[in-house]
Amino acid sequence: MPPPILPMMTGTIVSSTLREQLLKAGLVTEKQVKASEQQQHQRPPSRHKPPPPPSPQKLAAEKAAAAKAARDAALNKQRQQAAEAKARAMEIKQLIEQNKLPKVLESEDRFNFIAGLFGFQEKGLDKSKSYSVFPLSTALGYNDADVKNTSYAAYGQATYKISDTVRFTGGLRYTKDKRWISWHNRSETPGNSGNFTCSMAANTLDAPGFCQSTDDKSYTFWSYTAGVDWQAMEGVFLYAKTSRGYKSGGYNTRATVGGPARGFDPEKVTDYEGGAKLDLWDRRLRFNAAGFYTDYKNVQRNVPVVVPGSVLLSSGIQNAATAKIKGLELEATARPMRGLTLNAAATFLDPKYKKFTIPLTATTSLDVSDTPFPYTPKRSYTLGADYTVAAGPGEANFHLDWAWRSDTWTTGPLVGAGLFGLTTPDTNKIPSYGILNGQISYRMLDKKLEVALYGRNLTKKKYFQRLLALQDTALGVTSYLPGDPRTYGVSVSYDF
């Protein structure tokens, strides 16, 4: 019986030398060898292994790629459909504009309205004492007045869209003001002597011999505004408007005999304005311009008064006259490069009194309408530059600004025939001047913390902030308040 090695030889390639050795050793027979050779001829050996089946990871990747391709195809289709819809909308819009078809606005977009109520109350006490022109006068003045004021108003304002680019705005306000005052003004001559004299006229006192005078007034007024604006095109906005307002009347708490009037009437103002706001150069340049005409009635002015027959100085609000102001305002802001902002502004004013008279006698008056308008320079300019650059954890800012204004007149002598102000008109004039300021700052912590080094009046310009001209009075002097000299400083600020 042959050994069990033969099944293991089936299908195995055996060399001739090995076959002979197996035959000699009796391990195989000739019949087994021939059978093995026939099987080898029928199944030739394979030289290549079959490819392994794909891994689960590869199958998952192929499936994900196919899904992504499907999504991209769907997204491209949606984009194409949106582009086609936008093109159709543009065609319809062009067709409407070409045929001038009316554009319908939703009702909630056409009309906007706001209304409200306003209430205000205050109580106060003006209580002070001072020597007005010591040592020219030794009288010590006591200003003592209790004040109660109330103001109530109802208002409404509406905006109506005439079209998608034109709007009309109108508003109305009703105001009622009430003023109440009780004076106890007196003087002590000389000061700290205990010798008091009531400073108010005897016919105004509440009771003879008692230094107290009480008065009250009420005022009502209708204010309005009306205007039209037009968004002519992108970056071009035009407008025109008119408005009417008033400043309430009231009382001078420091009224005395021969001094300022006890009370004053409301100041009324009617204004007309038109202008344009332009955004140009891809919004890197903004230009605004406005022209206006303002009509004043019962102009309120704080007027210094020297009590007749003395050198006592007092002041208070009086109704001066009617006046008009014509003006033009220009503003420009430019951003020519990243981090750099330039700005400029100019104002041109033409203020004049329309009617300004003072009484000379019970039947005659004098025209003083040539008196300069106080604290209203006819020309003023400002220039500024800011440069901001990233630096470390924050940013650094470099700033310069320059402001200039023309000659300015303060309260002073009236200009009229035979008056001191006609022959000496410049006693209350502040000459023109310009001031240069600068600052270097560093901002960090999301711009909340800022540390700055600043300088004011870098050119050391000498100028006057205010002056009080009394050369045409018994005092015969003019006092000046000089402007600040060149100053430096460091500031630290934090925004919470």
Summarize model confidence as the mean pLDDT.
83
- Poorly predicted regions: 1-12, 99-107
Number of DSSP strand runs: 26
Rg, Å, rounded: 47 Å
Estimated share of beta-strand residues:
over 45%
Largest sheet: 16 strands, antiparallel
What is the first-to-last residue Cα distance? 106 Å
Count of individual domains: 3
Count helical runs: 6
Shape: elongated
Secondary structure category: alpha+beta
Helical content stands at 10-25%
SSE map:
Layout: H1 6-9, H2 16-24, H3 30-42, H4 56-99, H5 107-110, E1 111-130, E2 140-161, E3 166-183, E4 186-188, E5 196-198, E6 213-233, E7 236-247, E8 250-251, E9 263-264, E10 267-280, E11 285-297, E12 300-306, E13 313-319, E14 322-337, E15 340-355, E16 357-359, E17 365-367, E18 379-391, E19 394-405, E20 408-409, H6 420-423, E21 429-430, E22 433-444, E23 449-456, E24 464-470, E25 477-482, E26 487-494
Antiparallel strand pairs: 1-2, 2-3, 2-4, 3-6, 4-5, 6-7, 7-10, 8-9, 10-11, 11-14, 12-13, 14-15, 15-18, 16-17, 18-19, 19-22, 20-21, 22-23, 23-26, 24-25
Structure in words:
The protein has 496 residues and is an alpha+beta fold. It folds into 3 domains: 6-42, no CATH class; 112-320, no CATH class; 355-496, no CATH class. The chain has helices spanning 6-9, 16-24, 30-42, 56-99, 107-110, 420-423, and strands at 111-130, 140-161, 166-183, 186-188, 196-198, 213-233, 236-247, 250-251, 263-264, 267-280, 285-297, 300-306, 313-319, 322-337, 340-355, 357-359, 365-367, 379-391, 394-405, 408-409, 429-430, 433-444, 449-456, 464-470, 477-482, 487-494. The chain has a 16-stranded antiparallel beta sheet that branches. A hairpin with a 6-residue loop joins strand 12 and strand 13. It starts with 5 loop residues before the first helix and ends with a strand. Mean pLDDT is 83; it is low at 1-12 and 99-107.
